[in-house]
Amino acid sequence: MRAVGDVISSGYIAEGVTVQKFEQSLADYLSVRHAVATNSGTSALHLALLALEVGPGDEVIIPSYVCCALLNAVNYTGATPVLADICPDTYNIEAADVKKRISSRTRAIIVPHLFGLAADLDSLMALDVPIIEDCAQAVGSQYAQRPVGTFGIAAIYSFYATKVITTGEGGMVVSNSKDMADRIRDLKTYDQKDDYKIRFNYKMTDIQAALGLAQLQRLDSVIRRRRAIAEQYTWAFKILSLNLPAEDPGRIFFRYVLGLDRDSFPFLKTLANKGVGCNRPIFLPLHRQLKQKGCPASEKAWKNLLSIPIYPSLTDEEVTTVIDAIITSLRDI
Asked: pTM (2 decimals)?
């Protein structure tokens, strides 16, 4: 609140020096050369695709089990989205299925690190197609003891209100390519240009960046708290007939997702009646939205997965309430 108040008091609230500080701070945290702030994770992804010169006639491979922001970003460019299935144990995009869908028109693969768990980057990078990492749920996650977001040609982050750290709305593109970063900086601002081409109003404000800087300073403690809650859940649920999150030292637990042996939907109302708000972690997979088939693991994940509360301000007493509600609901239904 003080950081945001200082920006307001300064009289300069649009994109300025505080945005630059936020960009540099995230770049330093990840050990990447360039970071460009945007007004959302979706706009960050749109610009990353445009910087790769993705457009009509091209194909971009994305997972089906993901929010529709990826689908929108690909469609914004005029390219064709190609849906791939997920690994049934990690819920991340599966390299073997991606390989089947690569064609001469494939220009990029968007790889979300879903729920804070890194995807199988070694197998995906071996496909020799440019990768854009989607780290919207994974700031602070690691793969092979290295931060996610540092493997692909670029990576995007989201700082929406529910994300790991927040600026209310906002996003970031990071890359070690100066050419990509320069293209993105050019495209995100439409005014005061010597030449005309379609550009966008995708800027972040200094107000948002001030909040982001304060959040970034707390990131390590936020991750620790999320992991501590996850440990309590795993200990409590390991005796139940549930598929628990895959163990990985690099994950940050943006979500704690339970895999049931049945449709998760009936549990939602029961848990709500017990004072615990849960949901399916993905509202509707893309193959269902596009009325396509061929993604059986995504279909099963959509039906059977249940996301339970794990935000950092959750108290130990509230964690116990969640555990008790899950156990009694499984017994009662």
From this structure: 0.97
